[in-house]
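Suppose you are handed a protein chain with no further information: no name, no annotation, nothing but its sequence. What can you learn? This example shows the usual starting point.
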Amino acid sequence: KASGKWIRENFKKPFYAHIAGEYFRSLETAAKLGIPDARWVPSIYLRPRDFGSLSNLDSPLSSQEYKEHMSEKARDSFYWTPPNGESIAHLSLRTERVIHWISQHVPPEETALIVTHKDIMETFRIQIEKISQLDYTKMIVQCPPEQQIHHCSILHFTRRNPLTGEVIPTYGWMRVVTPWMGRKFTDNEFVAIVKKRYGNEE
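A reasonable first move is to predict its three-dimensional structure. Written in structure tokens, the prediction is:
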């Protein structure tokens, strides 16, 4: 509800599109935001990450197998895949489809509101900011707490320059806001999106 209040106070213009994961929890969260005149479109691509065998309390994995998987995750959490599950890299392919849908169905001057889960939100950052596997840990996993995505965080992308009001063709700025965690997590300024390119010496 705190997130819904923040959205209503900071977005006076109605959203053109309202998209949510099709699982009950996502749709329930979307409804509790209290967005006026919302018409939610469920999307299979916004479902939670599949952790496969690790989703079960009675996991078929032995303790040794579990330790090995956690060790692999620690080495490379971007490409690590839970047994019978999905990696972050897999999730980013789902996110790409949602971004494509928005580009085809939402006019450039309009806005879209999406309700989904933490891992999916992180892959929106990966796709829009073009974050590579090399920078994933630094920019997302180990970034400062106020820039991390928490429970009920709001990930805000914009094409409008927050200083000049100029609108550019692609997303140029982002911020993470978590209203229920206090002002330190709510008063975040926009950060310019810098899509990194690598030279030969790197």
